[in-house]
Amino acid sequence: MADEVLSQHEIDALLSALTTGDMDANDLKKVDDVKRVRTYDFKRALRFSKDQIRSIGRIHENFARLLTTLFSSQLRTYVNISVASVDQIPYEEFIRSIPKVTVLNLYNVAPLDGKIILEVNPNIAYGMLDRLLGGRGDSINKIESLTEIETILMTQLFDKVAVSLKEAWSSLTTIEPELEDLEINPQFLQMVSPNETVVVVSLNTAIGELSGMINICIPHIVLEPLISRLSVQYWMQNMTKDKDPEAAKKLSENLEQVTVEARAILGEANISIQDFLDIKLNDIIALNQSIDEPLILKVNDEPKFYVQPGKSKNKLSVQVLEEIKGGVEK
């Protein structure tokens, strides 16, 4: 352990205490003689700094948002997923921490070495399966085995997760994730040695009335080539590089070519269904628009301008008088 460095103020206070007799030099010697020992568990080797763990957390916060969107569209129900924690632990501890029978999705993340595990709590996994089969999303406690149809449905659902995984990791590196296997027994998954350090990202997951955890296990071998990129400096440099003026100019030019619908509203009226059914030729419907008030021009159904009607080259047209701030009508 490195020696503690005292500030000038602390040194002055110490010398003053020794001079006045408030502190005995022998007492200080006794304190120095006490060995300072910190317990270190070699089975829990910390290979990632706190800064790197935070970077991994940021990546998977984006992944959680992408998963929320994906599962909401696939299951057509309320879904909320957020990062609960990011920890580095031995692989053996991760295997012992998850249920003995659960849903384990194994992803190949080429060109990186190793594989990533997406572990889905049975409570959540079977709620998803029930929704896919047209149910209300109730959890079914029968995960001892999966039928062939259930396996196909689960595989198809979690195969789509690969796209979200690729997008979330794109800020760090380019990977081509692919669902390699779906397993329900953790004992069959010996990806790395039991003492190998893995990063476990735990996601709080709520689907409909159900709640549970989704855990992402990332072995050290996967992240090892990217360790230099898991730093604040790298992220700051990336943010600077992303500000490409040429790309922004091209995006603006493309947006200018987008076609939108513009409509000038002459007025509106509310009538009963009976009056509507009784309408005949030459009947008059009074609008709520006064002739001395400007009309409203809507762009894609959003009120944008006050205008006045007229003609331009023998065509009906409107002249813009004023912008409607915030798209709110007066």
TrEMBL record:
<feature type="domain" description="Flagellar motor switch protein FliN-like C-terminal">
    <location>
        <begin position="254"/>
        <end position="324"/>
    </location>
</feature>
<keyword id="KW-0283">Flagellar rotation</keyword>
<protein>
    <recommendedName>
        <fullName>Flagellar motor switch protein FliM</fullName>
    </recommendedName>
</protein>
<dbReference type="GO" id="GO:0071978">
    <property type="term" value="P:bacterial-type flagellum-dependent swarming motility"/>
</dbReference>
<dbReference type="InterPro" id="IPR028976">
    <property type="entry name" value="CheC-like_sf"/>
</dbReference>
<dbReference type="InterPro" id="IPR001543">
    <property type="entry name" value="FliN-like_C"/>
</dbReference>
<keyword id="KW-1003">Cell membrane</keyword>
<keyword id="KW-0969">Cilium</keyword>
<dbReference type="Pfam" id="PF02154">
    <property type="entry name" value="FliM"/>
</dbReference>
<dbReference type="GO" id="GO:0003774">
    <property type="term" value="F:cytoskeletal motor activity"/>
</dbReference>
<comment type="similarity">
    <text>Belongs to the FliM family.</text>
</comment>
<keyword id="KW-0145">Chemotaxis</keyword>
<keyword id="KW-0975">Bacterial flagellum</keyword>
<dbReference type="GO" id="GO:0050918">
    <property type="term" value="P:positive chemotaxis"/>
</dbReference>
<keyword id="KW-0282">Flagellum</keyword>
<dbReference type="InterPro" id="IPR001689">
    <property type="entry name" value="Flag_FliM"/>
</dbReference>
<dbReference type="GO" id="GO:0009425">
    <property type="term" value="C:bacterial-type flagellum basal body"/>
</dbReference>
<dbReference type="Pfam" id="PF01052">
    <property type="entry name" value="FliMN_C"/>
</dbReference>
<dbReference type="GO" id="GO:0005886">
    <property type="term" value="C:plasma membrane"/>
</dbReference>
<dbReference type="InterPro" id="IPR036429">
    <property type="entry name" value="SpoA-like_sf"/>
</dbReference>
<keyword id="KW-0472">Membrane</keyword>
<keyword id="KW-0966">Cell projection</keyword>
